[in-house]
Write the structure tokens for this entry.
Amino acid sequence: MKLEQITALSTTADTKIVLMIMDGLGGLPVSLDGLTELETAKTPNMDQLAREGILGQTNPISPGITPGSGPAHLGLFGIDPVAHEVGRGVLEAIGVGLDVHKGDVAVRGNFCTVDTLGNITDRRAGRIPSEVGASLVEKLKPIKIEGVETEIRHVKEYRFALVMRGKNLSPELFETDPQRTGVAPLPVKAKSPEAERTADLFNLWISKAMKILADQPKANALTIRGYATDPGLPGYKEMYGLRAACVAVYPMYRGVAKLVGMDVVQFEGETPSDEFSAVARAWNDYDFFFVHIKKTDSYGEDGNFEGKVKIIEGVDQALPELLQLKPDVLMITGDHSTPAKLKSHSWHPVPFLLWAPATVRPDMQSYFGERACSQGGLGNIYSLDVMPLALAHANRLIKFGA
Amino acid sequence: MKLEQITALSTTADTKIVLMIMDGLGGLPVSLDGLTELETAKTPNMDQLAREGILGQTNPISPGITPGSGPAHLGLFGIDPVAHEVGRGVLEAIGVGLDVHKGDVAVRGNFCTVDTLGNITDRRAGRIPSEVGASLVEKLKPIKIEGVETEIRHVKEYRFALVMRGKNLSPELFETDPQRTGVAPLPVKAKSPEAERTADLFNLWISKAMKILADQPKANALTIRGYATDPGLPGYKEMYGLRAACVAVYPMYRGVAKLVGMDVVQFEGETPSDEFSAVARAWNDYDFFFVHIKKTDSYGEDGNFEGKVKIIEGVDQALPELLQLKPDVLMITGDHSTPAKLKSHSWHPVPFLLWAPATVRPDMQSYFGERACSQGGLGNIYSLDVMPLALAHANRLIKFGA
């Protein structure tokens, strides 16, 4: 069913929903007869929820498709990630904590190396270390362009994000990276007459930046691409009538949450317990909590099987703090799989647990793990089905038709 | 695959299909470690069919969406219930046994209370008892309007259904219920010039009705809304080449069956055995039988877990009468779930059993129940998949492509 139809069926109720996303939760056994990270982890609390609730597995996009973090989260929030692609510039910018509002233009930037003729010799500036990249970004921060505001932030190594804010800006611009060496970076060109002024403004910023970088041994030039503005996604309030809050340590996930109208809860620390305490403090002010655990994904990307297991166990140990708030609906899942065996995001379906004591139909599963989820009562669902299921179990959807 | 493609693949065969819908069949355990209504019921015959056949669970619309009876049945009949919404007036009218044909306009009516200025003081006429409502409808039956035929029937309490039949009628009308008190009922107004005459005819009917009701203590006025005509759904013959019959006790389900071109089999009594006898008598005249059992839903709505269990057991006891007819395909399912625990329709998937001795691929399940169905060989399907599966198992679908 389409989002606008879900919206039309949404109603209010005095119920609270928690969606805990352990990033990259899904895994693989290292040897074919072994266990996955989640199956290996000792998770007595989640296993109890699995016995009382229902399991399934979600496909973030469709079978075989590996999602980035942006689309993977959008799907879980109920927004079709294939129909609503969030521009790379916006993801890069919100990933480092920059705000991107309607009308702003966000871009991804790369430092590069050019020769004395100005032709590119290395598109990634010899992959300069992050410390160097960060110090260069500091040098570029003072650049001022009349009529607009610019904000730059380092991402990592040779990468940075830049946001331009002002009136009548347009992201309809061609990228400056020629995608090969031996030629100069391209000037910013407009794809439409309305974007001419924005092209001029970016060219002005680039020329000032090039002067500052001119004496660098490696990163003596730059390219920009991925121009994008706030995609204007619908918010939780308008989609579902939910006052929604985000509890996340990493800027990227706070940024995605802000794009769908969630408030970001501020808190100190970065342990699961710190996050659950933040949920507790905000409990009375919101109907929906998105709680994000990052390190399952980080250890997966590092190929650190044991590290990922430990993070999952840490979340499980802290879980009673969340449960004592008595959510009406608690869902535990990942945005995608990040098996340590593959050291990257993957396409494998994601374990999904739904616990809702008043309304759930329990299945036959007795622990939280990939194999149990593949036999779960919910079967294989799409991440787009997650929000309707959450609303239904929280008595927040009325009947369709008579 | 789309309906027109299913139609293109449909072929004839000398096989018979029975679709038995136990309304609201899906349930929930009252306590999280308990059994559902269907799991609790002793159903040796259905369990035998489960062992010989294949199980699955159906989603009437999509995960999380609770359907009304109209859309839930349409889906099982192979018609997309989201794309083909049947108007409220039509559902109300067929629910009390009124026929609605192409060009008729059916509406829902409410008795209401107005003060001496004609302003509404109670939109539901103080929720008059059904006996009062029924006697008022009797008083309105003699109303005649020149050029059209009108038929009115009581629904319950303050509600009635009215059908107007004649030439060039249009349902493009605004409702007369102002949705608040302190103002008078609105006159019927047309949304388009073609509907002007219909508006006049309804206004004429209303003015005559108001005179008859004028001296009533509570129900001294009325409002109408939900104008709709026969949605023009495709019939079983044209969709699937099936001569289809409906065996149902309640008018609503006979009405929905008529909308898709089924013949309604008349019979005495209302037990499962009475219904199966009716199927037996009509056996040679039809290829497809829709058998509807209502009381599973009624007891579910009442919150009567044990009552629902007993109804299921009663159906199981009578089942040999149906089996001795030797259907080629027998499907047993519900249109949606109505857990006694929730006392209402719900979004939970519906247990589905398909038995077809000549063509079925049996799975590993050994009884008919929600948990077994969640592990069934058919997996999670949409109710729209049911008719293609029925046709296939009855050798009534040819190969797609070479």
User: Anything to note?
Assistant: Chain B touches chain A at residues 26, 28-29, 32-33, 36, 57, 61-72, 81-82, 85-86, 88, 91-92, 339, 342, 344-348, 370-371, 374-375, 379-380 (CB under 8 Å). The first helix of chain B runs from residue 3 to 9.
